[in-house]
Amino acid sequence: MDVVSRAKPDPRAFVALETTLLLHGVPSASALPLAHELNEIVRSAGVEPALVGVVDGKPTVGMHDDELRTLLDAPSVPKANTANPGVLIHRASHAATTVSATMELASTAGVRVFATGGIGGVHPGLAERVDISADLAAFTRFPVAVVTSGTKTILDIASTREALETLGIPVVGFQTDSYPAFYLRESDLSVDARYEDVDELASFVHAELVRTGRGIVLANPIPEADALDPQEVGSWLAQATQIARLRGADGRDVTPATLAALHEVSGGRTLEANLALIRANTHLAARLSKAMMEQV
After folding, report:
1. What CA–CA distance (Å, rounded) separates 9 from 15?
2. Is residue 156 within a helix (H) or strand (E), and if so which, with residue range?
3. Please, are residues 54 and 85 in contact by the beta-carbon 8 Å criterion?
4. d(Cα 141, Cα 134) in Å, to the nearest integer?
5. How large is the angle between the packed helices 230-246 and 254-265, nearest 10 degrees?
6. Number of domains in the chain
């Protein structure tokens, strides 16, 4: 794949960031300020941000502000997972990259650390139709450490955790023994190993990426002050799921539609939590990238 990579001269000194969050996850007026905020978080740790997306058919790692503005000004921008970038590139389309597509482009450019909010996974209701995010298979193909607050709350978190183990994807926790549940700091699921120190974590991540050529789930719980009440989240989720169905959400649109409905019924509290966890994950990813660069 011919990727426009600005993660040079040393891609180890970069942290990948996704465009789906900016184009489909927050109000459009907040997208550019949020991108600038995340960029500054990364740079404050001594490394550089690399925003990933597709602009006019050009897969790009390290988008400039004018390229992001082009996407934000477009009437609509499709989401790209690992199944459809080729079509979008061939058609000279824009695209917002999900976790899986961001991993693919980042790994092609040599970037090994990526900060996101929550990964995709197994959708509820498999008895009706199989719906499993391309994110999970991407971990088997691309050697990228993904800093995440677990699996999005709207998904079947237990089945997703089981699928990661089946696929042979290591799930390690940063200062946690529990696999986090996005808006919630804990679930009744465990991680494979716990790391307390960024330097020790960096040593493991480097060795594991080289050893397997596969990705790593690096679970970082939402900050305690920003975590939400499980009962409230459960009530909001039931309402949001119904709203998304009534609005006809299907396929790739289910997740953003449900999250948007969640933000509505929670009065914006889930959006605030989402922003808090992406900031925390970006900070940890930047520290990890810096430590990995210094160790090698």
Report:
1. 14
2. none
3. yes
4. 11
5. 120
6. 1
Mean pLDDT by 10 residues, the chain (296 residues): 91 96 91 98 98 98 98 96 95 97 98 97 69 93 98 91 97 98 94 98 98 98 96 90 82 76 91 96 98 89
Give me the amino acid identity at 157: I
Nearest-angstrom CA–CA distance, 207 and 212: 9
Please report the pLDDT score of residue 2 as a whole number.
86
Catalytic member of 48, 152, 186, 224 = 152
In single-letter form, the type of residue at position 96 comes to A
CATH number, domain of 222, equals: 3.40.1790.10
What is d(CA 24, CA 96) in angstroms, rounded to the nearest whole number? 8
Instruction: Spot the catalytic one: 18, 48, 67, 104.
Output: 18
CA-to-CA separations, 191 to 105, 179, 181, in angstroms, rounded: 27, 5, 12
Residue for token pair 């092609």? 108
In the numeric block, which tokens belong to residue 162? Answer: 């089981």
Annotated active-site residue 18? The verdict is yes
- Whole-number pLDDT of residue 257: 81
The whole-number pLDDT of residue 129 equals: 61
Query: Which residue in the block uniquely carries the two structure tokens 């999250």?
Result: 259
Inter-axis angle of helices 198-212 and 269-295, to 10 degrees?
Answer: 80
Hey, CA dihedral for 83, 87, 88, 89, is it positive or negative? positive
- Can you give the pLDDT at residue 130? 65
Known catalytic membership, residue 40: no
What residue numbers bound the domain in which 269 lies?
4-295
Indicate whether this model's pTM tops 0.90: yes
Show the tokens assigned to 153: 């709350």
